[in-house]
Amino acid sequence: MREYQEKYLDLLAELRRDADVPTGQESAQALLNDVSQATGRSREQADKGMALLRAELFPALDNIFSASAEDIADLQEFADKLMQGVAQKDSALAYRIHMALVNYARQKNDRDMLIRELYWVGMGLYNMETSLSPGGARLFTYRMRLSFAESASYFETAYDDITDPEIRGYIHRSMGNLALTYSTSNLDDAKAKLAATMRSIRILSDPEIRAKTPSLPWDRYLYLSHQEQTTMLAFLRQGGAEPDMFVQVMESAQLIQQKQMEQARERGEPLQPRWQYTYYAALYHCGAISLEEFLDVLYALSTARLEDDFDPQSMFSHLSAPAMFMEYSKTLSQRKMAGQKPRVKKMLRRMFRWLAQVPGSDYARQMGFYLRQVLYAYRELPGCTSYYDLLLNVFACQHPTGYARMWRTAQIARALCRWAIKDCPEQFVGFMDCADTAAVAARAEELEDFAWRAGRVYDAGMVHCIDMVRTTCRGLLEEEFSLLQLHAYYGANLLSKRPSTAPYADVAYGHHCHYDEQGGYPVSFSPGASPARAMIYIISVADTVSAATDSVGRYYSPAKDLEELYGELKDLSGTWYAPFVVDLLADPARREELKKDLDRWIGESYEDLFRRRQEMMK
Description:
By secondary structure, the protein is an all-alpha fold. It contains 30 helices and no strands.
């Protein structure tokens, strides 16, 4: 590799160490100091990383067709290291390199190179899109499918002409990975996914095909295809599956169970809880065990690991097993669910204590999918933790800077709301049953409380983007910015489905929409048509002020002075921001008051964060 590539990898390693989730602090001040120093170093590392890429990599990609064989080999090695291992150092940048290499392979008519690079383009897209799972929206599905399908198509057209076993391996891997490009959200997609896995399994099991390239890891390929087939359980949970789907999933689950038992005996280790869930879930869906028996299994899996055990299997036990318990238990009668409540409480206590202790490591970064499973499956039950507090606990443990920023946003929003009730109460007429300005004045405290509570969770969708904004040693690429924009949609989706957070869903959805609705995102939402429009406009400004003046957790650039920021807000009043909100800051005395509060709120936000983490440990 070239020197700049080695330097960039070193910077990535430093950045990830600095971005580790801080744990074990003795005080709120120690936590604040730790975060402040880490984010300062992160900004420096990101600036250095971007400078390296602009000076060396981006020009090389722009002139890829004139690259030498040595240049191409260096780029391939660099891209492989960027996408190496479970932690995925920088998949988006690796994807960009592989896209350039695809173009190079086409221009040079290099078939073998094209097969390889198409596979890695598909994997780069998949790695970026996994930050959206579970959730619903999929940005890169068709691009991913085209890449894997083109690579896999050489099985029919050129397989016998290819002499390199590694290239034949890429064909089979692409064929198996076609199943990744289908969701399980509807019957048609589920059928297509099942057809893709079954075709891969059939070809990988063919002795004649195996004999052509005996050096390939056929059994591993086959095992991975069976693992992918078991993801059909997500569709089986929804109902509407056809009988053959149950059969195929059960067969794959049994094969995986047998393999897991063999490996456990060989290694002298316990069975992996993730695949135990898969096996028993398949048994339940096929009618071999009852729901109560299956819930017993899930509860046992949730308590199978110690609270100071942080390997990936422990993530499943402490996060996914309770999530699945809640998902499956929703069909129980009210009486039977009441009997399960002590189990739910115990699982939640264990989950929170475990989350509060997770060390800052690559293992912690693998938790994204498991955490999102909890957030999407969680059910609010009387006497148990509210969804509102669950969200705050997750951010307190995995994204402390995000927690602190939303806390400050909430404080700013409450102050703006208080001033708006005094200056322009008509903005709230029609909201929260306020029929006129007199009703607005009478309910001022409730309106301020709404602004505060909305500010605490309006950015809930950032749970999909934590690693992206925390460990990227450069500016965001176009694909990443598209993913980042979805956080407003995902936040609204999360909040809207639970009573404790549903009132704040529109605020989450619209806080990045422009006031004139001629820009911002998402374009599908109209803040002006929402009953909560005044609160959306207030949170939009509060979010900007909180982020721009953050001197501790701002990763991309140093904090701005409030006076400088106010000038920018005035320039964008009527387009990006609601004029009535910007006008609330026209009084210099208010700006001076807010400036003092902003400085004080930084420390107080981390005191609140520290207290929450301490409470989770109890």
